User: Fold Fructose-1,6-bisphosphatase class 1 from Azonexus hydrophilus.
Amino acid sequence: MHIGRTTLSKFVIEQTRGAHSEMGALLIDVAAAVKTISGLVGKGALSGFSGSMASTNVQGEVQKKLDVLTNEAILRHCEWGGQLAGMASEEMDAPYAIPAEYPRGRYLLIFDPLDGSSNSDVNVSVGTIFSILQRSTAGDAEPADFLQPGARQVAAGYAIYGPSTMLVLSVGTGTHGFTLHRESGNFILTHPDIRVPETTREFAINTSNERFWEPPVQRYVSECKAGKTGIREADFNMRWIASMVAEVHRILMRGGIFMYPKDNKDPAKPGRLRLLYEANPMAMLIEQAGGAASTGRGRILDVVPEALHQRVPVMLGSREEVKRLERYHHEYD
Ligand code: AHG
Ligand code: MN
Ligand code: MN
Ligand code: MN
Assistant:
């Protein structure tokens, strides 16, 4: 039973009272979309939506049926309320204009509807990542309105669809985790004020790309692998889930570092992950939990976006480890 415990709605209404009360209403709609998606992905093969579409998205990725459906779910749940000036998604070439019949607001909702979607057919955790920015006035968003550095985010969060569904959120007052109580449909505050543990020794990186990494990342990872036989004070463990939400969630719960660095496999791409849909919201959540998030050469939240689908190197997690990686980058530059 959770009578008397804090629900997401109560938390959001209390935290956004005043200047951002309309954002509170928007966050409650985002949570409704997350519950719809949780129900859909939780059905697995029984949903009838396994597998891929014939289409590719603007990222050049073959879209899963669930990429498209989850994108629709967020648009439909959030377009009507009058809080938004526009939306942008990993799965849409251009920003989504709010339909004429609905009122406009000043917020911008930016999202990755299904993160880790390559895992959706193999029953491994997937998620949804979102970020909220604002423009100075209500009205239809221009594409340029979305190109604000992540430091200007007014809220960020993700949902993880694992053995339990959780929503992890920051409105700039720490990072807080809510667990979906499926019977009542309520998100209950189970993880208030999450802090990234400092002492854990765990790294996450796709080592199949090792030969393409830059020297500072090669050095850092080889030192982690050498552990106490090398220069490090402890032996390290490694994980790679290929769902960023699941890696970030693990780091928020028990520490560690996650890296998707720049590599020279495709010189046109300065990294795999997208600045607006993935890197910025996760960077805000990690910083609000006392961790650090860097490109290797500077704070992710300070990067000024030049394009909607821009990619960026990502290194985030326990502060000391991220600082060490930044030091190695500066030594080689
Ligand atoms: P998405 O499914 O939204 O396209 O994102 C997948 C991302 C991220 O979740 C994960 O960290 C990374 O891609 C995995 O990439 P590799 O397949 O190269 O390991
Ligand atoms: Mn994708
Ligand atoms: Mn993603
Ligand atoms: Mn995705």
About this structure: The helical segments are 8-16, 21-42, 65-78, 215-226, 244-254, 275-288, 319-332. The pocket of manganese (II) ion (ligand 4) is lined by residues 67, 90, 112, 114-115, 117 (CB under 6 Å). The radius of gyration is 19 Å.
